[in-house]
Design goal:
This protein is of the alpha/beta class. The chain has 14 helices and 21 strands. Helix content is about 35%, strand content about 20%. Helix 1 runs parallel beside helix 5, helix 1 packs parallel to helix 14 and helix 12 packs across helix 13. The longest helix is centred in the last third of the chain and has 21 residues.
Amino acid sequence: MSPIPTQADVAVIGSGATGLAAAVTLAEGGAKVVVFEKQRSLGGTSNFLQGVFAAESDMQRERYVDYTCDAAFKGTMDYSHWRANPRLVRAIIDESGPTISWLQSRGVVFTEVTINMPDAPLTYHVIKGKGEAMVKALVDQAKSKGVEFFPGIPVMALLKEGGRISGVVAEADGEEMEVAIKAVVVATGGFANNKEWIKKYTGFDLGANLFPVGNTGKTGDGLRMAWEVGAAEEGVETIELFRVAPLGAEFAMGCELEQAGAQPDLWVTARGERFCDETISFWDTPVGNAQARLKHDGYTFSVFDDSIIERLQDRGLERGVGMDYPPGYKLTSLRKEIQAAVDNGSTEVFVAESIEDLAFQTGMDPAVLRATIEDYNGYCAKGHDELFVKDRRYLHPVVGPRFYAVRGRTVFLGTMGGVKVNARLEVLDKKDAVIPGLYAGGFDAGGMYGDSYPIKGSSGLASAFALNSGRIAGKSALEYLER
């Protein structure tokens, strides 16, 4: 690694999708760019993304996908009840189609345009090799344009002079040094691992009733630094919630047990009551919101029986978690995974010969659980869910002879706001004035969402927002440098 320079045009803080998109855009525009990444490796959680949202991309046009930017804009704003920043949403969605072509021309390969939920437009552009391949392609492109990367070197503070961003303070080998900078792009990925801030802004207790997925070292450094130089807050309370059953180091993400726990069968609270129409399992955000209402317990259960296991073996999944498990995928190893979990003394997976024993093992109220199952089986027999009006196609009775329960946890992919920005991704102060030379994107920028991630009609929007906000920030910063 080369020595840290004493000056550059732009510092990008963070090397995920936002930071890389910004760095490439800036370097291709002629700027001298340095990228600081506090982790030893580049890319962060962007290495694990599977696809990117877009509307009116060339790939969609080639496949006669008639889903417009106008429709995507209206859908996103309606989902947020117009709590999102409409000019920012418009800018991100309008950039989404061109970004797919931009990525392709820089070595990223997309295999298909699809969707991973019913009754939704085909907006999910699947990356060959997943996010890791995209990160490599953008890093290679950035380096070819002269971008310097400094992994393992965190930025500790931003510097201002005359109201403008003038530099950053980086830490290398315990020593702090100032780097003179004309502009900064904050792309540190939010604060998913900051227990104190999660409690303060969302009310959850990290590691108890809320668990981050795929996040490491996200402590809110970028937000703190931006706030210290006068940035306003926006969207800091919004997180991308969903539900995983089971969760734990002993379970591989996407294992057959997780697939079974995500099916729209019978879901109950820690006490044993139903709490939702289980077909919301097809859309992560409603599942996360329903689960989040039960934060005092911190978990729910997926309950099923032998007949449901046989259905999943013979007919396959109704709902698949991830692109590797499409509807119809047959869970041929499910019984083995259940037995292995029980043999290993798992406290997340339970098998019983009676409803009462299942309640005893899980801590549910036996009378409540029995009443819930009897009522539910009655709805199945009638073909009508009198409580939550679940589609009759997914009403499968739970009759034994063995009964199973898998604990479901509230999880999240990241925090989704913090710094207030405009449609140019310029950071704003508390009077909505631009802080000259400061930009933010991805999970550090607020305004793209209301109180929930807008899943219907825009699957992959978080990764698209990361990439598009990075590109827009880069273009805005280039214009700033020319003034």
